[in-house]
């Protein structure tokens, strides 16, 4: 017999440290100090990154390695998120951070107001060590040109203003806006509806009836009927969640920022009513990073509400405020949910829809701020009151963000179905001195471009239009977020479309090829003196049919609108 050798256990080498760079004790201490008070949870990764970015003016590899260790993530997971969002600056360990960063908006309204000249002058005149960058829309289109000096927002910016802010160290958020505070809001009858629901003096079914009667639609862009959405989520198994989308990055859109800065408790009361009626346990408010002062206001007022709640604290949902990081794509609800979970803002394939599988896999109600802002008025005054407003067979009230060549740019509350001509003349003070209406964007960057000859069209969602009525859709456009940008004879629709396509190219998340490659290819084709119609037809078809989300599907709208309505600008 042969001797049988005993089996041996193979030796397995165990890595003594995590993969990647090993953080130094100093890096660990710095991250621990800056992130004090933040729970070491994966979904709070972006909040941790903001703490580092705010303090260090950038993100260094050793700090990212220490952060990965703190959150029990791989360094690749941390890096992929840090490199996805525009407001995070990646530095080497030895690279000096900028003293301050000046962000100059070069989206359409600001470009029309001279943002390119402002950027060039600032690059020549700012002190050494200050970084001047051009960025997409920062939500101050009505005060164009707009800049952010660090976190200090400036509208109608001029070089001396910016240089003075830098010299005086004014790079933090502006003073908090003068808004209706918690005590004043309560004194005006605020949160009475929340109390009535809690104590049974008002029923969830009665609220639903008024919401249905109002015909209120989602006012963030898609226009889905709000009552139907509440019904869909109510029918799902608990626990249910709510996400509030205040990431309005659409070019020309600033109405949610205006509402938040003037009356934050209308949002918070609408939010609480929604949680009571739909049966929601947790809420996330996702606020775009450019609204620094508004974020401070919301934090203060939310703390005031929680310190003296109108109903017992245990009856309130858990509310978390999340800070965006400069990604237009996070305005898309599923991308926003990914960001809330601490990941890159990549849109999800659907179905399933977020009403069924949303935040952390639970049924989720998603609304923008303005939609929730209407809830109290609709219940107190009645759904019929809201529906009684409107023109051309439409019903309801709409807030329009109006910018460009008008006398009074800003947020204007008007009847649904109003035309752009009426909006300009009755609400925006008419065209600016010396300007005549040439073209307009009915719905921000995504909604297309129309000529003055079509200034009679109703500015509203096309669903439910009276039979035979001419609509935006019949001309290849839509109202979207109701961001109206007005162009005059001083502008060209072609130039506007190129600016918008460059915006889409910059903001594409890169997940799907039709959008990632299509936006860049479209921008290059549009730079040619004469546009290649056949190639643009093919490109537009592929982007619309094969892109994962609305960004790529709507990105061809400006290009196609110019070819359809302004052919003289793109052909000989």
Question: What structural class is derived from the secondary structure elements?
Answer: alpha/beta
Count every helix, treating DSSP H or I runs of 4 or more residues as helices: 24
Q: How would you sum up the major sheet? A: 5 strands, mixed
Strand runs, count: 13
Question: What percent of the residues sit in helical stretches (DSSP H or I)?
Answer: 40-55%
Describe the overall structure.
This protein is α/β, with parallel strands linked by helices and 572 residues long. 40% of the residues lie in helices and 12% in strands. The chain is built from 24 helices and 13 strands. The chain has a 5-stranded mixed sheet with strand order 10-9-13-11-12, sandwiched between helices. The protein has a 4-stranded mixed sheet with strand order 2-1-3-4, covered by helices on one side. The longest helix is centred in the middle third of the chain and has 16 residues. The protein is globular and about 80 Å long. The N and C termini lie far apart (97 Å). The model has no long low-confidence stretch (mean pLDDT 95).
Which key terms come to mind for this protein?
572 residues, alpha/beta, five-stranded mixed β-sheet, 13 strands, globular
Produce a short descriptive summary.
The chain is built from 24 helices and 13 strands. It has helices at 25-34, 45-56, 61-71, 75-82, 108-112, 115-125, 159-167, 182-187, 192-199, 204-214, 226-234, 255-262, 264-278, 292-307, 333-340, 369-373, 375-381, 383-387, 420-427, 493-507, 513-526, 533-546, 550-554, 557-565, and strands spanning 100-105, 130-135, 147-149, 152-154, 240-246, 280-287, 318-323, 364-368, 397-404, 410-415, 437-441, 450-451, 483-488.
């Amino acid at each position: 017999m042969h001797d049988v050798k005993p089996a041996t256990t193979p030796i397995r080498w165990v890595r003594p440290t995590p993969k990647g760079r090993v953080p130094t004790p100093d890096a660990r201490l710095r991250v621990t100090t800056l992130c004090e008070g933040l729970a070491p949870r994966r979904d709070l990764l972006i909040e941790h990154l903001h703490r580092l970015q705010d303090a260090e003016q950038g993100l260094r590899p050793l700090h990212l390695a220490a952060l990965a260790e703190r959150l029990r993530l791989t360094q690749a997971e941390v890096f992929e998120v840090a490199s996805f969002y525009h407001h995070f600056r990646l530095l080497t360990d030895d690279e000096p951070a900028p003293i301050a960063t000046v962000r100059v908006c070069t989206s359409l309204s600001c470009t029309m107001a001279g943002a390119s000249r402002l950027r060039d002058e600032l690059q020549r005149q700012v002190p050494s060590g200050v970084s001047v960058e051009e960025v997409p829309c920062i939500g101050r289109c009505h005060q164009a040109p707009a800049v952010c000096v660090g976190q200090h927002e400036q509208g109608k910016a001029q070089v001396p203003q910016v240089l003075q802010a830098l010299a005086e160290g004014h790079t933090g958020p502006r003073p908090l806006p003068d808004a209706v505070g918690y005590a004043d809001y309560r004194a005006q009858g605020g949160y009475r509806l929340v109390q009535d629901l809690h104590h049974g003096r008002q029923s969830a079914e009665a609220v639903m009836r008024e919401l249905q009667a109002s015909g209120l639609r989602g006012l963030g862009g898609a226009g889905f009927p709000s009552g139907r959405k509440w019904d869909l989520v109510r029918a799902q198994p608990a626990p249910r969640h709510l996400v509030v989308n205040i990431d309005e990055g659409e070019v020309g859109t600033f109405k949610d920022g205006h509402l938040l800065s003037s009356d934050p408790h209308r949002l918070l009361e609408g939010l609480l009513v929604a949680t009571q009626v739909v049966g929601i346990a947790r809420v996330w408010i996702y606020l775009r990073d450019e609204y620094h002062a508004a974020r401070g206001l919301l934090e203060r007022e939310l703390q005031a509400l929680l310190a003296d709640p109108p109903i017992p604290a245990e009856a309130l949902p858990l509310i978390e405020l999340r800070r965006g990081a400069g990604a237009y794509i996070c305005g898309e609800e599923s991308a926003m949910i990914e960001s809330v979970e601490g990941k890159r803002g990549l849109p999800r394939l659907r179905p399933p829809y977020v009403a069924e599988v949303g935040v952390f896999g639970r049924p989720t109600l998603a609304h923008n701020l303005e939609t929730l802002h209407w809830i109290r008025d609709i219940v107190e005054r009645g759904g019929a009151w809201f529906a009684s407003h409107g023109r051309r067979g439409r019903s309801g009230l709409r807030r329009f963000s109006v910018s460009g060549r008008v006398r009074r740019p800003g947020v204007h509350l008007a009847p649904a179905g109003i035309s752009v001509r009426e909006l300009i003349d009755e609400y925006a003070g008419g065209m600016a001195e010396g300007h005549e209406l040439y073209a307009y964007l009915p719905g921000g960057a995504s909604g297309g471009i129309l000529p003055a000859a079509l200034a009679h069209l109703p500015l509203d969602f096309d669903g439910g239009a009276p039979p035979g009525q001419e609509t935006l859709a019949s001309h290849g456009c839509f109202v979207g977020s109701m961001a109206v940008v007005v162009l005059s004879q001083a502008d060209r629709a072609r130039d506007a479309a190129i600016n918008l396509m460059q915006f889409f190219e910059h903001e594409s998340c890169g997940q799907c090829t039709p959008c990632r490659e299509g936006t860049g290819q479209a921008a290059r084709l549009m730079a040619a003196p004469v546009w290649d119609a056949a190639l643009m037809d093919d490109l537009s078809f592929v982007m619309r049919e094969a892109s994962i989300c609305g960004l790529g599907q709507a990105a061809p709208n400006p290009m196609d609108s110019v070819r359809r309505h302004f052919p003289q600008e793109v052909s000989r």
